[in-house]
Write a structure and sequence with these properties.
- With 113 residues, this protein is mostly helical.
- It has a single domain, classed as lambda repressor-like DNA-binding domains (434 Repressor (Amino-terminal Domain), Orthogonal Bundle).
- Helices cover 70% and strands 0% of the residues.
- Helix 2 crosses helix 3.
- It is elongated, with a radius of gyration of 17 Å.
Length: 113
């Protein structure tokens, strides 16, 4: 997934227009459109602002992701959440995994009925 595709997904998940994103980072709708079409790349400072306002990580926006994620097996909003989890302490990550495990166990119990 390209940088432009990622910011388009992130912007749309916030239900923002290109103009709203542009205003949030101090640029125009036209420039946001060029970023989204991968016609131009922002400076690192602008990309960092974009990551902040889109509740994403700069790492997520600029790095390539695995082919499995590209196939769409994991929704874009979950990919963003996973990148935000990397910033948490090991103890908090363990708590989140425990919660996920609990929901999975609950689903298994309900599916047996």
């Amino acid at each position: 997934m390209t940088f432009g595709q990622k910011i388009t997904l992130a912007r749309k998940s916030k239900e923002w227009t290109q103009t709203e994103l542009g205003n949030a980072i101090g640029t125009s709708r036209d420039i946001i459109g060029k970023y989204e079409r991968d016609e131009i790349k922002p400076s690192i400072e602008v990309a960092a602002k974009m990551a902040d306002v889109l509740d994403s990580s700069l790492d997520y926006l600029v790095r390539d992701i695995s082919p499995e994620l590209e196939k769409g097996t994991i929704p874009a909003n979950l990919i963003q959440q996973f990148s935000r989890l990397e910033k948490l302490s090991p103890a908090h990550k363990d708590h989140i995994i425990a919660v996920i495990d609990a929901f999975e166990a609950k689903e298994k119990l309900h599916s047996k009925k």
